[in-house]
Design brief:
Helix content: 40-55%
Low-confidence stretches: none
CATH topology of the largest domain: Jelly Rolls
CATH class of the largest domain: Mainly Beta
Mean pLDDT: 88
Order of helices and strands: EEEEEEEEHHEHHEHHHHHHHH
Distance between the termini: 23 Å
Number of helices: 12
Protein name: AraC family transcriptional regulator
CATH superfamily of the largest domain: Jelly Rolls
Keywords: DNA-binding, Transcription, Transcription regulation
CATH architecture of the largest domain: Sandwich
Organism: Pedobacter punctiformis
Shape: globular
Strand content: 15-25%
Domain HTH araC/xylS-type: 183-280
Radius of gyration: 19 Å
Number of strands: 10
Length: 281
Amino acid sequence: MKIHYEIIKPDENSSIRFLHQNKPTKEFVWEYHYHPEYELVCVFEGAGTRHVGSHLSVYEDGDLVFIGSNVPHSGFGLNARDPHEEIVIQIKPEVLDGLLRCFPEMKNISGLLERSKHGIKFNGPVKTEIKKMLINMKEMKPFEKVVALLEVFNVLANDDTYDILNKQPIVARLISKHRSRLQKIFTYVENYYQKDIDIQEVADLVNISVPSFCNYFKRMTHITFTEFVNRYRVQKSCMLLLQDKTVAEVCFECGFNNVTYFNKIFRKIINKTPSEFRKEN
């Protein structure tokens, strides 16, 4: 799980990037990444895996998520069924900050931006409403798109049918400041998740003691290192469960050494057993 810094290039003559994607999931790259831009993701229908910050879960019947500046996340087509169709809009924080300073009418949107530090999942009728608004934006000119996006944000800011994905906010400046050290840790997990991971080795990798490492990792990610490793292994297992492998094979291939424990952790994170997940996907 390398944490990639993604450079976002706005559309021509625009301050936003508008992406409408409808293609087989195998054509997407679902890397764990972050960028300064706020990101709104609307998955039209179907199911997949949602990974925002330290939150990992399965969505069904489409998805609508607003992600704050520099909050790490994966693409929502992970483990999705074909065809996967989504609209993604990204906008630089300085654009919204400038508008908020100039227009007191946008005060309610500032609350939405603050909540986005946690990652926000929207539910209920607002998902259908926003989907229609985003589809209408596809053929708009740049100025019209920006105005329409502000209308989208206004609707979301006044909607209360949402869930916060991470209990603690993801602090953008900390993620940016500690990118190099975090990437070493994430890369180590990526390379060795199939084996028993020695926390002493990881602490030595970043030149701190084990107690300091545990405190540091919890402060950066709001979960323990063990929780992070389990979530990473479960994410990998979701992909393998869609292949022609038994639950036991997936269990051991992803670094778990006990099927009962694997089932317990998988259910805790995904809210389904591995067998239920496979059956429904």
